[in-house]
Amino acid sequence: MSKLASVKVGVLGLGTVGCGTLDVLARNADEISRRAGRSIEVVAAAARDLSKPRAFDCSEISLTDDPYALVADSRIDIVVELIGGTEPARELVLAALANGKHVVTANKALIALHGNEIFAAAHAQGVTVAFEAAVAGGIPVIKTLREGLAGNTVQSLAGIINGTCNYMMTAMKDRAANFDEVLVEAQELGYAEADPSFDIDGVDAAHKLTILAAIAFGVPLQFENIYVEGIRDIALDDVRYAEALGYSIKHLAIAANDSSGVQLRVHPTLIPARHMLANVNGVMNAVLIRGDAVGQMMLSGAGAGAEPTASSVVADLVDVVRALTTDPGNRVPHLAFQPDALSQAPVCPMADVESAYYLRMDARDQPGVLADIARILASHEISIEAIRQQEPAAAAVTVPVVILTQRVREQAMQLAIAEMTALADIHGDIVRYRMETFA
Ligand code: NDP
Ligand code: HSE
Questions:
Q1: N or C: which terminus of the chain has fewer CB atoms within 10 Å of its end residue's CB?
Q2: Any idea which fold 352-435 has?
Q3: Is 291's C-beta closer than 6 angstroms to any atom of ligand 1?
Q4: Which CATH number is associated with domain 141-302?
């Protein structure tokens, strides 16, 4: 065993991931030091309320409610940021870097929104910022894209990268669960963000997609260019109708890079029920990646929760410890590509994105209505793949009609939807979801 002194770590945050990380570090201390070549010792941790009971016995660690004191503590080599949010996390991480400390973080909002500033500060100090846990919990997708697939031109990726949404949508499908009740379950299990609207409105998935796209394609971090829809409005009826047609609705983050530019979008999507991604359930995440050399591959595993996330945090710690004595100029670049070699590929406007569609509308049950709908779709060169009239609700004057279309540009579909909505025989809004087959 190495005679080198242990590497000293300070942990900001003693919540779900903070305590999970302390537990894994303590439980697997021997295995970890055999891998890292040195032992990793947590000497300090910070939280807001030191009187709160913790999921890990912190009696051997010096605790503080002053996170600024921790990032200035001269004993500490690596700061692990697990408090979440952008402030004060950003200020604390920048202070840690300015003090010459390496940083490990699970904070996707921080990296997606302030990564450029943080990586520049790290570069100036010759230190590292590691953030594997920021995307897809326990799945080593960052390392895979950044290192394992370094020989590829990555063409596309599609992921279930929010555990809370997948947990909730699985529960809605399998047990017709009520939206608000399953959200509470996800919060109790420690999956949801401090503000769960980040999960259910797709913001968290967009933060993660920002990071994945940058690493996959060598484009800048650009959260502001991501098209985002969440799961708040998904109706159980659509889950059931999609299932009857052989599809599952999943909340997907999709990025693609081709001659028309970079596509960056997060939205509920119908995918064939037999596809691998459709069978990723509960808190599990998965990322389907297509590279020109590797072909199509999928990584899957737990996307949230104390221990799976700790698995990634600790892997980053081991990586940082291994690299402590290496020349900073020769380390793996934070975002996979050399910072001065980023592509300025344009982001494809949503109006130009092509996909197939699922439409549901409430139509008056009388002759000629379907003919009108077919005429409007045809006038926008939209081909119908399937059409199905569902059972009407008791005493309803309309019947739900579900239509699957072939691939079409988003703009044509928006125009067709506007025209169909204006028909007197169509009541209310038309529900539409994009469909992907990944063929
Ligand atoms: P929690 O809310 O469970 O824990 C946050 C911790 O940070 C708490 O211990 C809190 O203290 C402490 N904290 C908050 N603000 C301050 C502050 N100003 N000064 C000192 N301490 C502070 O969050 P999670 O553990 O769930 O998440 C942590 C990070 O990991 C987030 O960035 C999250 O997005 C990310 N993440 C979470 C996953 C999960 O499954 N939960 C999975 C992957 C990433 P106190 O307890 O006293 O209130
Ligand atoms: N709230 C996030 C999720 C935690 O549900 O996926 C993991 O990043």
A1: C
A2: Alpha-Beta Plaits (3.30.70)
A3: no
A4: 3.30.360.10
